[in-house]
């Protein structure tokens, strides 16, 4: 038993300095064990430290005998790797003692908890332990308790391991030293040999080999081979379960080690290495052939031997005779044998296996070859009740789960669940019933009395009488019943959409198996009979391709056009063009087809298509263009007939599909478009706010009892007894799929089920199928819900040859398990689909864990050969197949694909997966660069810098991605404000780099972003230089490249707004930039320019128009999840609202501020000369304005000073902050301080050139402060400068009405002119 197990202890520790046996002086307590304590002591006869073990006097005679035996055995063993014996004795007064050498270091258990061993360290330690055991085995001594805590690493060095604790050691051949037959459990759960776990009389040296094999396995994998949540469950696993193969847990280990571990962990001691001498011989042989200890390359098995290690539904019954916490002794062994034999007799007819464990517990497993899952569990429940009745004090646990079937007991999740229940029950009072898990309880029908006992467990108390059942045969098709109301609603929506054209969306939600697919099938069947049938676009989700961008929409268009992957690219282009262009004007067709080609993964050449070329260089632009093309195509189709878009299993879709459908519904709001989506209820969690303003939800409830009874009678025929009908209806509980399963199983026995255990029912049904058909289903399930005949043949190898596979598939179609699809993803392969997703899940659950990785490797390789275009699908299979290098490659490719489609969240996810799979080298730099760009687009500036900065060094300078990343790193660094030197370095690097020819647009974008940052710093000359650089680089492309032209004009509008007295020209250029971006469909950049134009409009006094534009931009950005544009719009809108004279606008601004500037981060910024923050500083400036308007002057001043400090290096916004602070100080009557603040702002303004948007307000603030301070001369000088700025800016406005609005509606303009009139009269104005 583990020395750390709870046991009786001595009342207290011995005092320091006490001398034992006149020789050993105690120094300190080193530890306590089950039988006593261990002290560090000084051997006064030698002056050397020793470990002194003292036995508690209160221990049992058995423990006393073991203590003496350990001392006697240890005294006869001499080996450097065995702890050295010093002395032992039994004094007349005091405790028995055993003195051993003192060791400095740590035991292996502690070392493994902190860090793993290397392969070389593991092998060195294994050899040394084997040498130590050889010394013991040659003397006939078996240790019997080898485990990591009994292997001590001297000095922490594995190569100097020392074997400890011979307290359980004994001679292999019974002698006078042997322990009598009390059937004590000796050893530690998880490391015992099978002969110990079954309490055999003789324990051979081979038991130590098994225990050492467990230690070796743990060192190699980091996990014990027989870990279990309870002592009894661990014993069961040791006896009957095989550990997961090394290659599954840690791929790449030398193949020689798997052979060695297999020989050490053989259940049968006759097949195991017999002793340590044999182990040393094997180790020597391995070391003599170095290739056997080299890491092996990954090997792909030619086929899956699914039937050799198939999983089946297993019920496990554990009967614990007593709590192990009460002591070491087990219950009466003969009584346990009697009960074991009785249970074997009772269950043998049902294929059950029963064993007695070393602790006296009984374990039984039931895997019947016939009958249903409910039959299996009912049988196990009856056995459990019988044992509880005969042995009320026993703890009886019953669980159901999957287990691998081999020559011994099936083990797996069921025995682990049983162990967990036993562990839980030890903390509770004795139970009066049988404790069961949720699955078992769900499989038991009304014939048993159950009650919930908490924590997901149920209590089985008794069996009740139930009516007899008849066994009618199946054979009639299943009609659609009980869905008249839902079908009527769908039909009404369809008719309304035709008669009063308007886009409609319906979402049918229900848990798996309730009948969504059947409803869809019936509705489409009715649509086919319409006088004018709709154009149906059907897309189905699949769990293996969950999240693949545009998966459902691309699939529906490919199906409509008859496109298959097996055709060459030109043929697919032709098919797509001929069908898409059918209703479109000739001038529009090519453009629409090109972008729908991107949606369908059918790329068209970009030569002659500037829009396509621009979009491929900008993912978000591509997303916008695809949406525009889809809307155009559907609008043309709507002119001829209603378009019905059916999206089945939407919960397996992606965010871009959802967003694109939302755009369709919005843009075609007055067209005959109907969207019918079907999904599980979790779809609303996966896609919050799904089409919220246009969606009608249709929750699909369970079948009514009347509908269920009708279904049973129509399928089974009128002869079925009413009792059978009612029982099936009751057990189905309204679940349509369950009811179908129950109808199919009526002829086999009772069909009892609860919805939460549907997988168990389906798995039970699958295990009763003909072996060949089951093998096909298991192989097919590895693909996902959709699979191909050739792919299944690939997995099955020789089992898939000839006509057998075709026959199995035909039979499965007839049995309504799978269905053929009319249009295959691969033109040369027949495609099939599981009719129900849960059937696929059930089949996949039966594939053993040890076979799944091989299966996914084979599937990935087959799909790759077939030309699968979705990199994410391939990556998923290779990752599940533990081919991490291939997985990393395809996750990287998927990252690129998703980035091109502007699917930002999925891009980040795939990039992280690629890195987790070990992506390295140049691809790793590229993927991290994409992550950095996307992080900023998601407005995660810190993350953008953290990821993107290091990635830049691995990119080629001047390449498109390098340019794009540099631009966004510059603006991210400026946003963060703590990387001024790095921003400067990147700026210089960008300006002296010549872009590659294909990177011109990306370079101009980066330069424009740099220019925006330069404007913040107020560097007028540098801004002009950047504009010149852009015009130089884009000299050849500017006329025909709207994207480059748009970025150039964006920067120019900024320059005119911040540096020049030309607000009208700034607005005109901003509108031109907006048109440029709109020309190529770049909605993100259109939003940006909408914000810029709104900002400029506000400076012109057109406040209503400005707010309308800004609110619209903010709403659009939030709706389309354009995070960066949303943040920009929110910032500008807040500033406009804060500067408005209307109190209602101030309230709105105050509500926006918390999202812009979390207060918890502020103190981090307010430190150091070079620290600044664009967003935080502006936030405090706006907050100061709002506090001023409310009259809260002290708080306003604090915020104003914080804004000035945060914006100090950013001259442009520093002017704004000083204007606000001066006004606040003036309102407090502190004219001199107000004047000082205003002077600081004016100096910054003059440094910038003195004519930009903040010029009037800044000079006005100085004038008013000077007047209040009594310096009229200085005040008038400042006022004249303010008037000059107003006049200069007004001269730029050509329209009289707009110019008048500018003079009267802009507060600082009106105040300046008013003061001038007061000072100099009307003529001065």
Structure characterization notes:
α16 (551-561) crosses α17 (569-580), α23 crosses α24 and α39 packs antiparallel against α40. This protein has 55 helices and 27 strands. The radius of gyration is 40 Å and the shape is globular. It has nine domains: 19-101, Phosphorylase Kinase, domain 1 (2-Layer Sandwich), CATH 3.30.200; 105-293, Transferase(Phosphotransferase), domain 1, CATH 1.10.510; 311-463, Nucleotide cyclase, GGDEF domain (Alpha-Beta Plaits, 2-Layer Sandwich), CATH 3.30.70.1230; 487-699, 3-Layer(aba) Sandwich (Rossmann fold), CATH 3.40.50; 705-768, no CATH class; 769-852, Orthogonal Bundle (Arc Repressor Mutant, subunit A); 869-955, Tetratricopeptide repeat domain (Serine Threonine Protein Phosphatase 5, Tetratricopeptide repeat); 963-1081, no CATH class; and more. The chain is 54% helix and 10% strand. Residues 1-11, 173-184, 294-302, 323-331, 465-477, 747-756 and 1159-1171 have low confidence and may be disordered. The strands form six sheets. Strands 12, 13, 14, 15, 16, 17, 18 and 19 form an eight-stranded mixed beta sheet that branches. Strands 1-2-3-4-6-5 form a six-stranded antiparallel beta sheet, with helices on one face. It has a five-stranded parallel beta sheet with strand order 21-22-23-20-24. It is an alpha+beta fold and 1325 residues long. The N and C termini lie far apart (101 Å). GO terms for molecular function: protein serine/threonine kinase activity. This is Serine/threonine protein kinase. Residues 24-286 form the Protein kinase domain.
